[in-house]
């Protein structure tokens, strides 16, 4: 749900569909920031003979704005090339793949990584970087963890990069939530659920044992901060960066029978992602594809969808009597200044004591990260609302429970921060899809690229 199949057209084109975006100060390297953009959603591990991969015709980018104008000051650009070693076999591999140069591996992907500045000047950081293969099974990829780790490339300037398959680390009860907004822990209170369910239930992780493709890069903090600052205080505006990812294709695609195809013209953006759930839940169906093709600087056109979200109006109707204070707030016609700050401007100083992650008043969907806040010694998956300022909505870490945080925020939990007279409904503590990071089968890694080893097809059949 973070951004899986979030718009009608992008759902038909998974290779350009961004699923999740992460930005956090690296827990094992606190002088560096890690940026991860996931693509190609909901991959079943048993996917032969054509295993999942990035698109050669796609320009994947992770953008960083460090002055609050909604324009990328730094962009990390990934472009891929696929090669076939043996054109006389239908097989992905003809024996065990024990290294990135194994002659048994038939279909490989390589990529070029570039850094683009605010003026559009492109600096190539590395070429011909190898991706790991997909995790086929114990015979084809017998030591996949080691093999994939060899695809972590160390680059000049203290940077490292990885592009390849990872275990899906995002957890959400898709089956229940999109069944008329049902939350299993509250399903007995649902307007229709009271006659269907005997009581509450734990959530079911719909994305468990599925894979994604990750673009992960770790760079020094000075690589993304305004002016290249190496040390700043948390209250310094230079500490904050805004991050989003996009995927683009050439404008013209002409099929030429018998001789391949031709792609030409300018690059056209087909998807973007900043904060989780924005396009998924807040943007109406008719506008979702247009939102995907627009820049963050145009998000003022969609700000009213954040200020008065449809889901906030639906909750009192779906759960009669459970949200009286939210119902009153909705009927007051007041804009949700709390949601506008969390999702579109960053949280200014003075709202949460000792914390801020705002660069300007510009309304733009970016994952805002205060890079001067160090990693937490004991992370709380509820992030800032759980008393952990190193977590969402201050950037986003792989384990952060963004579904619960945003559900509770929309339900009114954060409105009390800007209106001291407002009392969140008593049911707020139970507003969740009933999942935690413990419901992800693959263990997260403690080091880069942090997302777990992908599930293999032998043990995880489609």
Automatic annotation (TrEMBL):
This is DUF4331 domain-containing protein. It comes from Catellatospora methionotrophica. It holds the Pfam family DUF4331. The lineage of its organism: Bacteria, Bacillati, Actinomycetota, Actinomycetes, Micromonosporales. InterPro entries: DUF4331.
